[in-house]
Amino acid sequence: MNLPIKAIYLPGGIKVTILDVPTGLKKAATSSELREQCPFCNDPDCYFHCDQSQIDEEIYDYEDGTALSETEEEVVERLAWNAAIDGLEFLISACASKGVDVESKNFHDAVALTLHKIKNCYW
Ligand SMILES: [Zn+2]
After folding, report:
1. What does the pLDDT look like over 70-123, one tens digit per residue?
2. Alpha helices in the chain (DSSP H)
């Protein structure tokens, strides 16, 4: 069993959990609230997979200002944003697992800069 031995919070609310594994190697996992969810099923990976996103006719009405659903363009943007966040979190986990000092000011600055650049790409 991998026990959490330390939690580190990075810019964007990314939580890095350092795990104590039996081999003695430090492993890490990340989590955050940064991934955007489908407004119907709350699955960040939903691409018109859930029934509600498929049957709601308003989802295809781009001129209806009352539509609560995502347009196809918005869904694609959400998935691209989520993929970028996944990549950032995978890198942070790998850095923490390989002994990079994820508590250093330089690392925090690098994460903040990367998040800023991702936001400029997808929003
Ligand atoms: Zn959905």
Report:
1. 788 888 999 999 999 999 999 999 999 888 999 999 999 999 999 999 999 876
2. 51-55, 72-97, 105-122
Query: Cα of 70 to ligand 1 centre, how many Å?
Result: 10
What is the rounded CA–CA span in Å between residue 30 and residue 71? 30
Q: Where are the domains of the chain?
A: 36-122
CA of 81 to the centre of ligand 1 (A): 16
How long is the chain?
123
**How close is the Cα of 68 to the center of ligand 1, in Å?**
13
Cβ-defined contacts of 79-84 (< 8 Å, 24+): 79/45, 79/47, 80/122, 81/35, 81/36, 81/118, 81/122, 81/123, 82/35, 82/36, 82/44, 82/45, 84/118, 84/121, 84/122
Please give the distance, rounded to the nearest whole angstrom, from the Cα atom of residue 71 to the centre of ligand 1.
12
As to burial, measured by CB atoms within 10 angstroms (0-12 exposed, 13-18 middle, 19+ buried), residue 33 is exposed
